[in-house]
From TrEMBL:
It is found in: Membrane. It comes from the Eukaryota. Residues 1-24 are annotated as: Disordered. This is NDR1/HIN1-like protein 10. InterPro entries: NDR1-like. GO terms for cellular component: plasma membrane; plasmodesma.
Length: 218
């Protein structure tokens, strides 16, 4: 005898569906919070990128526009280097938005990685899209040099050619300001010069100096 199935009326919907567990609701909430956080981080990143492109400053452009070397003698035996050098430096601010405040300015000349003399330049201010000339900067003195044999050979070769390799370094503490945006930097500037030795009665040698661009790094 076949088993009879119970009669199902229209009010029977099957077993009750259990409500979502608390752990599932917690995972959904966590996913929602995570998506919102990721969206916020992405939006902030895009905003910072746009602001960086707008307000990122261009490097300042330094050039040694003139150099006048009228004495550069190394005394044999005492190794005293006697020098007389005058420099003019041109600084170009290519930024449209930023003005530059030079708060601390150190300028040094070196020969064979040995510092000959240091000058502290006056504080000054530079408008946007402008050029200033710093100088003349006069260096006149003597320095005890410690040259190895190779450096002595290089000095004698430069003396024979009448052109000396002299380095100029700048150390700054400056502010670049655009409205309420103020950026502070301590850039370094390096200028590798080839300076002909001349005299006041031989201006042709001095005129051989070529305008020299410097390396600028923030």
């Amino acid at each position: 005898m076949a088993d009879r199935q119970p009669h199902l009326n229209s009010n029977f919907y099957g077993p009750a569906v259990p409500p979502p567990s608390k752990s599932r609701r917690g995972r959904r909430l966590l996913c929602t919070i995570l998506m919102v956080a990721i969206g916020f981080i992405v939006a902030v990143g895009i905003l910072l990128l746009i602001l960086g492109l707008i307000y990122s400053p261009h490097k300042l452009e330094f050039n040694v526009s003139s150099a006048r070397l009228t004495q550069f003698n190394l005394t044999t035996g005492s190794n005293q280097l006697r020098y007389t050098l005058a420099l003019n430096v041109t600084i170009r601010n290519p930024n449209k938005r930023y003005r530059v405040y030079y708060d601390a300015n150190e300028m040094a000349i070196l020969y064979k990685n040995q510092r000959l003399e240091t000058h502290w330049l006056p504080l000054f201010f530079q408008e946007s899209k402008s050029t200033v000339v710093v100088g003349p900067n006069n260096f006149d003195g003597q320095k005890l040099m410690f040259l190895n044999s190779d450096e002595h050979v290089e000095f004698n070769a430069e003396k024979a050619n009448g052109i000396y390799s002299i380095d100029v370094k700048f150390f700054f503490r400056l502010r670049m300001k655009s409205g309420q945006v103020v950026l502070k930097f301590k850039p370094k500037v390096y200028c590798g010069l080839k300076v002909p030795l001349g005299s006041d009665i031989d201006p042709n040698m001095i005129s051989l100096f070529s305008n020299t661009a410097c390396d600028f790094s923030f």
